Amino acid sequence: MTDAPVDSEKISSFGGTWSRSDRVSLLLVCAASALIVLPGLNAFGIIDPSDGLYAEGAREMMELKNFITPHYNYIPFYEKPIMIYWMIMACYSVFGVHEWVARLPSALCAIATTGIVFSMSRYFVSQRAAIYSSIVLATCPLFAVVGMLALTDMPLCCFLTTTMLIFIRRLNGERSAILWFGYASLGLAVLTKGPLPIALTAMVFTAYLMLISGANLKNPVWYWRQILQLEPFKGIAITLGLALPWFVAESIVTHGDFFQEFFIRQNLGRLGGLVNHVMPFWFYFPVIILGTCPWIIFQFLAPQMTIKLLKKRSISFPENALTIFCLCWSVVVFVFLTLVKTKLATYILPVVPPIAIAVGTYFDRWSQMKPGKSLLIAGIIIASFLFIASSLLPIASHSLPENLTGGYVPTAVAGTLILAVGWAVFSIRAWQNKIEIAIQTVLCCSVLGAAILIPAAISVFDVEQDQPLRQLIFRARNENVRLSTFTRTCTAAPFYMKESVPMITNEQEYQTFLHDSEKPHWILASKDVVALLLVHPGEIKLIERKGKWSLFSLK
């Protein structure tokens, strides 16, 4: 393979004059992302625990009229900064308190991120490559799923992606006015997740500058000149001016409790694995493969292009500069998060945009050259896997409960078949050497297939895991009882009960709960801890059992 000629069609500057085609393309990629994440927001209830954590926290803050301190279960909650709560509360104030409204900020950030990837990468690459990158991002399974949940990860991904792409544009000749947006976005990222975005940004750009330094590798003056292009002193003022007031106010009103919990325990503790979610070092490898499948395959189908880029490290062509930067971005963030002992699948989301941009750029190059048989073979393998999966889903569904087979399995089969057909057409067109048509066809089918398949998959998970829990909670709410949980938190319970639902972990808390209200007292327990609860056989009576949850009344 050889490098494709560089497309001469570039946008001269941020905020410059776009062609009508650019504006239409931006609307199309945002519409494609919206088609995937918006329609299914109301297809399922609260996903316990994380989905309900922020949905309920924002609801309580509105009820308490406290817009500074995050709450959960009517007590201060210091694990995350304020931004996600403000976003959800803003949506609640417009549309009311509903599950889908709590997820709306994540969905809007997902749509915005695809638009940002198109707009910012368009400075470096052709319009076609920018479109490919955006659609690949929108159809990555991890990106689409997180875009439909009320979590901090998608807003962080949106703000961090904006900052990264603005800074790299500045280093490649963009005017300095763009930096205001980059540092403001970094400030919002800090309000979303804390100091982590600053650390990730610094590490990525350090690695990038070292990679492209060439003969200047040991020349500190050269590094300092590059850094000065980013106007760090002004930038620090913008970022801290946006983020610091809330952190200071929160530390003052909580008398230092927030600082101790968030900065010391949650941030430093997570680095050392002293907080929950400790996972082995290899945890993110399957997550990123499955979360970006099948697109990540194509990042490894162009070893010659990647090796040539890394050997030359030439950024004279804007497209090469962006590709090298995305490689640094994805590798550095992935390695850092892998080294951190505390891990969750959604934490790796910031790695997905650079992978999508690199794949979209490679697709654009392939559409201008003869890529050989690699695309044909990849297309055949992916199409075959999807056709087999679509035929096995109905067979596998016979072992599932009837409520899972009603409409979800046929919907999932339809989505999988659309994806399979798209990759089959891709293979045929690749065999005919019509690469551009092949790529455009599979991207269109991927948008439609993801829009159908992903909400259906989340709904199946919801019906099996969380619907039984909600049914028990609804029964407790309809009976107007005092509800608690045993040994584990349940974020869906206070959201639907609209009151505190204490967690009982010891005998003293059990006795306190028994006397805290005139209402009948009920308790929720998962099957793994029911035996521990039944140490009071004369006081506890089983009311109903659904799935892995049991509901007991207390005398």
Describe the structure.
With 555 residues, the chain is mainly α. It folds into 3 domains: 20-366, no CATH class; 374-464; 468-554. The chain has 25 helices and 7 strands. The chain has helices at 20-37, 50-64, 83-95, 99-121, 127-138, 141-146, 153-171, 179-193, 196-212, 220-229, 232-253, 257-271, 284-291, 296-299, 303-312, 318-339, 352-366, 374-397, 402-405, 408-431, 435-465, 467-478, 492-497, 507-514, 530-533, and strands spanning 71-72, 75-76, 482-486, 503-504, 521-526, 540-546, 549-554. A hairpin with a 2-residue loop joins strand 6 (540-546) and strand 7. Helix 16 (318-339) runs antiparallel to helix 17 (352-366) and helix 18 (374-397) runs antiparallel to helix 20 (408-431). The longest helix has 31 residues, at 435-465.
Overview features:
single chain; 555 residues; mainly alpha; 3 domains; 5-stranded mixed sheet; two-stranded antiparallel ribbon; disordered N terminus
Taking all Cα atoms into account, the compactness measure Rg is 25 Å
Biggest β-sheet strands, sense, barrel: 5 strands, mixed
* N-end to C-end Cα span: 76 Å
Strand order of the largest sheet: 4-3-5-7-6
Q: Can you tell me the residue ranges where pLDDT is under 50 for at least 5 consecutive residues?
A: 1-16
Apparent shape: globular
Counting structural domains, the number is 3
Count all strands and give the number. 7
